[in-house]
Amino acid sequence: MFRALGRLCDAGLLRFEDVRPLLGDVDPKVRRLAIYFLGKAIQERGPRALSRGELWRWFVTPKSVIGWSPHRPGPPLTPEVEQALRIALDDPDSYVRITAIQAIRDIRPLSFLEILEAMRRTEPNSTVQSNLEIAISAIRCGSRS
Questions:
Q1: pTM for this one?
Q2: Rounded Cα distance, 90 and 56, in Å
């Protein structure tokens, strides 16, 4: 199953609907890989392509031509994707939370800055805390570009 998700993601065809059923799986490894592929697909294609067809695909080529910096926050996330990432941040498994934080770090949505800062104050796991600090720093750095 994960090879298929990887191939869809690499081909630029992975949609949010493809990973939605996996986000609620009982196995934390399945949830972690679903979040990983969701984050990877968002980075490669733009978040709107994940749930709204090929509408956002036109932006992939022009962004390199006009110089859209990877250090700037990306376009806004769809509500479905944002909700999936929020749920993953509350996951009981620390590795699922870390994977979600790393996806957020790479995407750099400003809407998650306050959430990550609040989470950093209450997170007991030191590895998750260090990933939170890196993600918060990346989002702040990206917002100043």
A1: 0.76
A2: 29
Residue with tokens 């298929």: 4
d(C-alpha 145, C-alpha 137), whole Å: 13
Cα angle: 24, vertex 26, 29; to 5 degrees: 95
Q: Alpha-carbon distance 52 to 87, whole Å?
A: 21
Amino acid in position 37: F
Cβ 55 vs Cβ 49: under 8 Å: yes
127 residue type, one letter? T
Residue type, 7: R
Span 22-46, pLDDT tens digits: 888 999 999 998 898 888 877 765 5
Q: Which two structure tokens, joined as six digits, stand for 20?
A: 């939605």
